[in-house]
Design goal:
This protein has 286 residues and is an alpha+beta fold. It folds into two domains: 160 residues, no CATH class; 114 residues, no CATH class. Strand 5 and strand 6 form a beta hairpin. The longest helix is centred in the last third of the chain and has 13 residues. The protein is globular and about 85 Å long. 22% of the residues are buried.
Length: 286
């Protein structure tokens, strides 16, 4: 990464520049399976069509392709001054909008502004409730059509998103599977925090965990699932190893990810001498 690299996020009055890696801007990402993950936006690269979100309690950010994102929501910043608006009023007039998404759902409401870019659309919805977003980004891959009522009351339609269909593999990768492996645990405090977080997690299917960790492609997973239909008594993980698609070590990491188990770095984690004396030497040597 380039020293002091920055990324730009559009705002109603002026584009904002942030330093890559700094967890300043709160954001929430909604995936195609309906799951929402929240954290801090630490990178946004339209040229590569990728973004990174640092989740609460994680040391490393999640990297997502735009094709995996249904909607990116950014709430108002509590520390930001009111934007300078062309009208001079704190709340400019808003106009209706309606976006039909690729899954057939419709996102509609009132917005102050709408900006189309080659990589997608930024909407600036009217904020009414405390949890309403101030900015919403819709990747081009998510949009089937966009309608916006102009100042003269006429609805303007834009359906020029036909070349941005989802790639099959992207559409089938759940957002939850893109979460990276948990960071190594080195202290008792980190272990306690990790176990508390694990207790709240929903287990991830082993195939999705492997895809999310980059050990397997969606196409390879489909191939293995088809084989498992013919051999239903064989566990999927074992089958993937036999097919040569993953290594046994990959399976171990994915199993830990599946259940949310933390990884403990035994080289750095402090050892309780009293606990060691409770373990028979032959058992410890196994």
């Amino acid at each position: 990464m380039t020293l002091n690299a920055t990324f730009v996020i559009p705002h109603r009055s002026i584009d904002e520049s942030y330093t890559v890696g700094e967890p300043v801007l709160a954001a929430a990402v909604e995936g195609w399976n309906g799951r929402v993950i929240e954290g801090r936006l630490v990178d946004f690269q339209p040229a590569n069509e990728t973004l990174k979100l640092l989740l609460t309690g994680h040391a490393r950010p999640v990297s997502l392709r735009f094709a995996q994102v249904k909607r990116l929501r950014i709430p108002p910043r509590s520390d930001a001054p009111p934007p300078f608006l062309p009208s001079g009023f704190a709340d400019e007039a808003s106009r209706p909008f309606a976006v039909r998404l690729r899954d057939g759902s419709v996102y509609a409401g009132l917005c102050h502004d709408c900006r189309r870019h080659p990589y997608g659309v930024w909407l600036f919805p009217r904020v009414v409730a405390s949890d309403d977003p101030e900015r919403v980004f819709l990747p081009k891959q998510a949009i089937a059509s966009l309608e916006l009522r102009r100042d003269d009351g006429v609805w303007a339609g834009d359906s020029g998103f036909g070349q941005s269909l989802l790639e099959p593999d992207d559409a089938e990768i759940p957002l939850e599977a893109t979460v990276s492996a948990p960071p190594m645990v080195e202290t008792p405090e980190q272990l306690k925090e990790a176990l508390e977080r694990q207790a709240r997690l929903k287990p991830v299917p082993i195939g999705e965990a492997l895809v999310g960790l980059g050990k397997l492609t969606a196409a390879q997973l489909r191939q293995a699932l088809e084989r498992q239909k013919r051999e239903p008594n064989q566990p999927l993980g074992q089958m993937l190893v036999q097919m040569g698609l993953i290594q046994p070590a990959d399976l171990q990491v994915a199993l830990a990810r599946k259940m949310g188990y933390p990884f403990v770095d035994v080289r750095k984690f402090p050892v309780d001498a009293a606990a060691l004396r409770l373990v028979p030497a032959p058992l410890a040597a196994r």
